[in-house]
Amino acid sequence: RICIWAYNSPVFSPFLPDDGPYSKGNKDSQGTDNSLTSRRQSIPEDLRGVTIVELIKKEGSTLGLTISGGTDKDGKPRVSNLRPGGLAARSDQLNVGDYIKSVNGINLTKLRHEEIISLLKNVGERVVLEVEYELPPSGRRG
Fold first, then answer.
1. Which of 47, 92, 110, 133 has its CA 20 to 30 A from that of 8?
2. SS3 at position 115
3. Rounded alpha-carbon distances, angstroms, from residue 126 to 6, 14, 95, 141
4. Which stretches of the chain are DSSP H helices?
5. Which residues pair with 51 in a beta bridge?
6. DSSP 8-class letter at 10
7. Where does the record place it (predicted)?
8. Torsion over CA: 85, 89, 95, 100 (sign)
9. How confident is the prediction for the chain on average, in pLDDT?
10. Nearest to 55 by CA among 47, 46, 64, 42
11. What pLDDT score was predicted for residue 27?
12. Do 34 and 137 meet the contact criterion of CB atoms below 8 Å apart?
């Protein structure tokens, strides 16, 4: 990922271009990245970033993402898949392996998988996600 200090911004728009200045980049970058978030239950604090992602979807449409986890599953809720061309993928603000901490202010840490899925399906047009993601080891640039 590319570390961009603009993440302190309180809200992001899903309408930024894919290569925009707020892009977190692509996790599938070249090289040997031994810090696969998808296998972890938590990210070390010094490598953790938290951001707010706002998505605006049309009524009846989906976010185009798959969530794994929940209190009855394998741990903290995280993005396990992004549908190509879906709203979440086009926003370029989410990556597979990112943890979803809350949806529209509702904390997900104590919800079962089915409750999380139901919440995401019935969330409405404005979706505000609190997302925890892993900073790249080389993300400290001057």
1. 110
2. helix
3. 22, 11, 20, 34
4. 87-91, 113-121
5. 131
6. S
7. Cytoplasm
8. negative
9. 75
10. 64
11. 38
12. no
Comparing CA positions, the residue from 5, 2, 37 lying closest to residue 23 is 2
pLDDT of residue 115 exceeding 70: yes
Q: Are 80 and 99 in contact (CB under 8 A)?
A: no
The pair of structure tokens assigned to 127 is 């979706």
For 13-53, write each residue's pLDDT tens digit: 333 333 333 333 333 333 333 333 334 456 677 788 999 99
Dig out the tokens for 78 from the structure.
Answer: 């995280």
Tokens of 122: 């019935």
* CA 29 – CA 119 distance, rounded (Å): 32
What is the Cα–Cα distance from 118 to 105, expressed in whole angstroms?
A: 15
User: Looking at residue 12, what DSSP letter applies?
Assistant: -
CA angle 47, 128, 67 (to 5 degrees): 65
Q: Tokens 């139901």: give the residue.
A: 118
Q: For the whole model, what pTM was predicted?
A: 0.66
